[in-house]
Amino acid sequence: MSDPVEIFEVGPRDGLQNEKRLIPAADKIALVDLLSTAGFRRIEVTSFVSPKWVPQMGDAAEVMAGITRAPGISYAVLTPNLKGYEGARAARASEIAVFASASEGFSKANLNATIAESLERMRPVIEAAKADGIPVRGYVSVVTDCPFDGPTPPCNVARVAALLRDMGCYEISLGETLGKGRAETVDAMLTAVLSEVPAARLAGHFHDTEGRALENIDVSLARGLRVFDAAVGGLGGCPYAPGAKGNVATERVADHLAELGHPTGLDMEIVRRAADLARSLR
Ligand code: HMG
Ligand code: MG
């Protein structure tokens, strides 16, 4: 048997945020509640972002208030600024996630800020969370390819990951937002990041636009990563990354890890039911 690997379920947030039809909060709550019985330790529920930017996440407070929390599960939310943090704290989020970009083009499109401005905006959010005892996870997006700036230099990813670590993020999730990464580009990116941040504090976040997410997970496993983000049903995409399609599907990652002998602790019958439910919401 190989090492256990954790799948961090991001379906209710990253899976649904890009859907055009406004999904009723009750359906999102039902999805989270089903996922809470599947064996996940962390579930990303929603985002406290501007509803002008991402209307689908405009019901964040209602969704957080409606879910039934299971003991031992961390219910995570995205927070881009202090306003989002206040919403997350009021909603009793177990942890928050801040998100930065490795390219200037995506930073501007996703956050209306340069990388430096977005990191400065995050600083008080992380400080406030620390003071409140709320753990903070950090994302770096477009880690291999950017829809606006082209290939991302690995040293840019390493720099932003190290800054997020220095600011106090307990884990850095490496977002391959576009799904264009290849084994060689992912490996080169990881070489740079691992020179700054150890594998135990990293997670892989792969979108499967071109069908290479599992291959890229294999590369990351070989480099020591043991946490991967995934979304049930393979839904998703980023509204500010044109061409980015679904997240890698949780059920595919779990089956793949099982074949490699990595236990995930998930109840696959429930995961498959959650995948059917997620797909029915589009
Ligand atoms: P801005 O327009 O520069 O901000 O956006 P602003 O401060 O001028 O605010 C504009 C309006 O939004 C104001 O309302 C604010 O009050 C309101 P008005 O006064 O006009 O009525 N507002 C908010 N409302 C609720 N909650 C908030 C909030 N903040 C402002 N937190 C901002 C800047 C950062 C707000 C905006 O760009 C934003 O919300 N961006 C988020 C975009 C997003 O959610 N993208 C998807 C998630 S990232 C992703 O998917 C990648 C990832 O999966 C990893 C990967 O795959 O790479 C994580
Ligand atoms: Mg994503």
Automatic annotation (TrEMBL):
Pyruvate carboxyltransferase domain residues: 5-272
GO biological process: what's one of them? L-leucine catabolic process
Q: Does the keyword DNA-binding apply?
A: no
Q: Where are the transmembrane segments?
A: none
Database matches in Pfam families: HMGL-like
Does the keyword Glycosyltransferase feature in the UniProt annotation?
no
Which SUPFAM superfamilies is this protein grouped with? Aldolase
Which controlled-vocabulary keywords does the entry list? Answer: Lyase, Metal-binding
One MF term in GO for this entry?
metal ion binding
NCBIfam families recorded: PRK05692.1
Family recorded in the similarity comment: Belongs to the HMG-CoA lyase family.
Q: What is this protein called?
A: Hydroxymethylglutaryl-CoA lyase
Q: Which organism is it from?
A: Paracoccus sulfuroxidans
